[in-house]
Amino acid sequence: MTTTAIEKPPGRTGQRHAPGAAPRRRRPGRLRTRGLPYLLLLPALLLELLVHLVPMLIGIVMSFKELTQFFIRDWTAAPWTGLDNYAVSLDFDAPVGEALLKSFLTTCLFTLCSVGLCWLLGTAAALFMQETFRGRGLLRALFLVPYALPVYAAVITWAFMFQRDNGLVNHVLHDQLGIGDGPAFWLIGDNAFVALLVVSVWKGWPFAFLVLMAGLQNIPREVYEAAALDGAGTWQQVRHVTLPSLRPVNQVLVLVLFLWTFNDFNTPFVLFGKAAPASADLISLHIYQSSFQTWNFGTGSAMSVLLLLFLLAVTGTYLLLTTRGPGERKAAGGR
After folding, report:
1. Residues 183, 174: contact at Cβ < 8 Å?
2. Contact present, 310 and 263 (Cβ < 8 Å)
3. How far is CA 65 from CA 54, 84, 138, 276, in A?
């Protein structure tokens, strides 16, 4: 009787290593594959450390010092004051604290109006651009022009347009349309808040439009067709199909717009200069004035730390409320 030997595939012997034999070495390519993401992230982490974290830590240390113009050459020699700078900033009955509180409330109102209008205009434009029509590509490109322009060039252009005697805004509103008794002052007085809000919305809503337009591309057309077959009109489709589908996109978009707008320094600084009117005194520019106009860097650093803590608290609360599902929020409310 003949015995047929079954050949095993090469490399699969099915036998373990004999005692004392050297174990199989791990492939070097596997180690390189696991370490590659960390290697690629290393430049970004180093830049984050040098550009943001180190200055932030220095600013926190400065907030505990009486750092004035007399210690600019060697800020480490400034005397240690503990929490005195924070006490001065939070004393709302004193001039410094009262001015900071007023600037904070102005910034909250400005951020609420700007973010709301940016989201509303961006949503309306994104919904309109979903329909196919001639010239849609050109119109999309035109909508993105304010977002593509450099901030300084755009805001300086608006500053010229808001000039009282030679500005385009007064020429259109007063000379052409006959609105108002005379040319208005847009860069001083109470109208400065409106001018700042117009510039902020004009340069901010294209970002909302771009993000929401990308989010709308992921909604299947079959969902709208099914809703239309059920008798849903345009507004009902937007309310019950579009907005719920865009909820994850809107969560990130609103948070980003809030942080950008609340911390915006370039727009008021270029539009008004170093001293903004009281009606448009945003907290970012107010901290700049408290630090570089009065040369009290200790108090300015304390204000910056307080602003950082406020933004961290708002961001954490917002993420906690928006990342929970409906069932989790209901259960948390029951507790």
Report:
1. yes
2. no
3. 17, 9, 55, 27
Q: How far is CA 116 from CA 34, 239, 286, in A?
A: 43, 17, 23
Contacts 24+ apart (CB under 8 A), 266-269: 266/151, 266/152, 266/155, 267/151, 267/155, 267/196, 267/199, 267/200, 267/203, 268/196
The tens digit of pLDDT for each residue in 271-313 reads 998 888 889 999 999 999 888 888 888 888 999 999 999 999 9
Angle at alpha carbon of residue 153, lines to 192 and 260, rounded to 5°: 65
What does the alpha-carbon distance between residue 10 and residue 280 come to, in Å, rounded to a whole number? Answer: 78
DSSP string, 142-167: HHTHHHHS-HHHHHHHHHHHT-TTT-
| 318 and 255 Cβ atoms separated by less than 8 Å | yes
Nearest to 196 by CA among 116, 276, 313, 121: 276
Pick the more confident residue, 313 or 232.
313
The residue among 91, 127, 106, 113 whose CA lies nearest residue 224 is: 127
Q: Give the global pTM.
A: 0.79
C-alpha distances out from residue 293 to 158, 280, 288, 289, 299, Å: 25, 18, 7, 5, 12
**What pLDDT, on the 0 to 100 scale, is given for residue 18?**
52
Crossing angle, helix 297-323 and helix 247-262, to 10 degrees? 170
Read off the pLDDT of residues 33-56 as tens digits, 9 standing for 90 and up: 777 888 888 888 888 888 888 888
